[in-house]
Write a structure and sequence with these properties.
The protein is of the alpha+beta class. It contains two helices and eight strands, in the order H-E-E-E-E-H-E-E-E-E. The termini are far apart.
Length: about 140
């Protein structure tokens, strides 16, 4: 594991209760794998189930975690990003409290401050969600 929950919070701009990643398993030039164990007090849990907006935010924050990890390698601050669009999102089922999401985020294309990413989320190797996003990174001052 490259980063545990405490270190992850230093790599992303989101802070509790909005942080939706809690582990960084791997990250390279094209792919990042992050985790989130769903807890009862998560903002996106309703009736014991982690809802769709949480899955989308988790995939987006996996991309943020990648950017923050890369920034940390050069002692920069984590960049702030925004979801520009969500495309081809499929939700196969909604995970429950106690489940650990594992999300693989792959870079489809990078251009200056815009990334197109593909996210695939699973629990115990069972597909939960997949989709693409356009992510815009805020320019550095």
């Amino acid at each position: 594991m490259l980063a545990d929950k405490q270190k992850v919070l230093n790599l992303i701009p989101q802070k509790p209760p909005m942080a939706m990643v809690d582990g960084l398993l791997t990250s390279d030039k094209e792919k990042t794998v992050a985790t989130l164990t769903i807890e009862a007090d998560n903002l996106f849990v309703e009736d014991g189930v982690f809802k769709e907006p949480g899955l989308i935010e988790h995939i987006a924050q996996t991309a943020a975690l990648r950017s923050g990890y890369e920034a940390s390698l050069t002692n920069d601050k984590p960049p702030v990003g925004f979801i520009g669009s969500v495309k081809r999102m499929k939700i196969f089922y909604l995970p429950r409290i106690g489940d650990t999401l594992v999300t693989t985020m792959t870079i489809v294309m990078n251009m200056e401050n815009i990334s197109i990413i593909k996210g695939e989320t699973s629990v115990n190797d069972k597909p939960v969600a997949e989709g693409e996003m356009n992510i815009f990174l805020q320019e550095k001052p």
